[in-house]
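Researcher: Before we compare anything, I want clean individual predictions. No alignment, no superposition, just each chain on its own. First chain goes here; please echo the sequence and then give the structure tokens.
Model: Echoing the first chain and its structure:
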Amino acid sequence: MQTSHTMWAYLWDLVDDGLEETVEFCKGEMGLDAISVATAYHTFQQLRPGRPGAKLLTAGEAAVYFRPQPELYVDTCIRPHVAPLVGEGNPMGELANICQKNDLGLISWTVCLHNSYLAGKYPDCAQQTAYGDSLGWVLCPGVDDVRAYIIALCRDLAENYGVERLELEMCNFGGYGHAHHHVKDGVDLGGVGRYLFGLSFSAGCMDKARGWGIDAEGLRNWVREQLDPVFSSGEPLTGEIEEVVAGNAELAAFQEMREELVTSLIGEIKGATGVEVSFLLMGDRWGARIRPERMAGEADLVELLAYSRDPEAIAERVKGVLKDIDDPEQLVLGLQAYYPCANSADDLRANVECGLELGVRQFSYYNYGIAPKPCLEWIGNCIKNSKIK
């Protein structure tokens, strides 16, 4: 398999630099095979070093960065929230045409469930704790409307924008602690307590648990019983998550159900779109319900973000994932192409060559609009002048 090189990018940066000019630069000067463009994204504040004048760009609402086809969303109560950047036009559609003309692949980088705007607008679709709190920043994959929305979103991008790959970020459960707002807490929950408090007992998860033969209400009460002393005393729960799960049959079944909800959603997206699907490994089995071996069985590719300046550390992370998937060519290695993970072109090249030695053949670089301009040259030189092509 020939090596492949892609780069993550934001549509707003491409628009500001000129779509035609940027695509020609990415293809001609950098030598990229594809660009991975954020089509659905969470809130952010971005420092843009290459901008003349003001350097900060802030988006206070999660949004989609393309013009949706409304008919595709009739099976869900959720409607896409379109970013102001789209306006009356459709820059994503323009970009798709320009990429096709220049033979540059277009990948949809889609943040699926991390969406504080939709979680707030559709509270019944958000993850809920055992106490009934909405986690607020994340939609729940146990809710049928959420699953239908994500499938419709992916169909929209595949059918209307000619993307060659759907790159799925946060297409899994979330947990407590990552939020749109500043988190204020004075209680050390401990690893077990944080796991239990991050479990979703949304109406969708409760219904599905009953369908699995799980005493959903009994489990929710048990979780409260474990957490109530933590909240009253401030003392964390001790022990290991795996042992706690194994020691409670209802919790073990609930964990298995949640892992299956994530895995099956990837398969449903793949079946509904018919395009290549890549799953970003962000999180672990307990917090995100991600099992790399299961993801590799449903998705065409899995992606590892190995942001480090140390090739040995990157090698250890790659080897860890390769314990769970059979083929290193199914792995996309994500590298940060700027400080502190790359202080020079040599640093970046060493990280790529580390992946190559382990059989990895697909690489993605972060990020067009965040990296200083010299770092983009490092990527181009790395692709053109080293042994990786």
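Researcher: Okay. Second chain, same rules.
Model: Second chain and its structure:
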Amino acid sequence: MKRPVLSAAILARDEEHHIGECLESVAPIADEVVVILDNRSRDRTAEVCRAYGATLHRLAFQSYPAQRNHALERCQGEWVLFIDADERVTPELYKELLCLKHSAHNDDGIDGYAIPRHNLFFGHTVRGGGWYPDHQLRLLRRARARYDERQFVHEVALLDGASGTLAGHLLHINIEHMGEFWHKQASYALAEARILHQEGRRARARNFVGAPAREFWRRYVRLGGWRDGLYGLFLCLSLAWFEVVKYGCLLLIQRSTTP
């Protein structure tokens, strides 16, 4: 049996709403699709994946980088495309991946490719604030990539060689409603606070003013969040607020661990 060239890997938990369209977009280009399903998942994600012919592995959640390493171990392709359930392969990216598959066995020293993303917030594609081009290192030569399991959020693959950049985009349906946005950012804030605590950082009074001010300036001014009008203003102000939440979480962790 011919060895797969390109595997698609998806991490999922309770994603029945999104994962079908994700599988539809990736199935025409992938030689196999591997889904690492969080064993806490309670909806019909597993049934949808099986209906599309995906190989399913139900695993206890440890961390996002650990789940990605499990995916690398279970995929068979020389290359692995990591795609989230709320992302889609665009026609332009499909064509580019097809060309790469034809030359996939050439060892040119490139072990990974970053892919730009279009991010949709509340149905609106944002251009500024750091959300575009939002390159993600997602196409990896499987034998030469791994994830640092100490990086709990916003994990990035470690490569044995160099990386390149593709021109085709992923479409990321980032946020569809306010509750989802608030829950996701609160989760990130707590995870980042835990990382800061492990690094020995402490919350100080100045963090509650300086950190949100810097974040708003960075996203709204330096990264052009103003280009997205009221959407951009709302998103940048919200991300600034969650800097306050992050340091609030860090302060609570400090107090709970101090004898």
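Researcher: What stands out in the second chain?
Model: The longest helix spans residues 229-257. Additionally, The mean pLDDT is 94.
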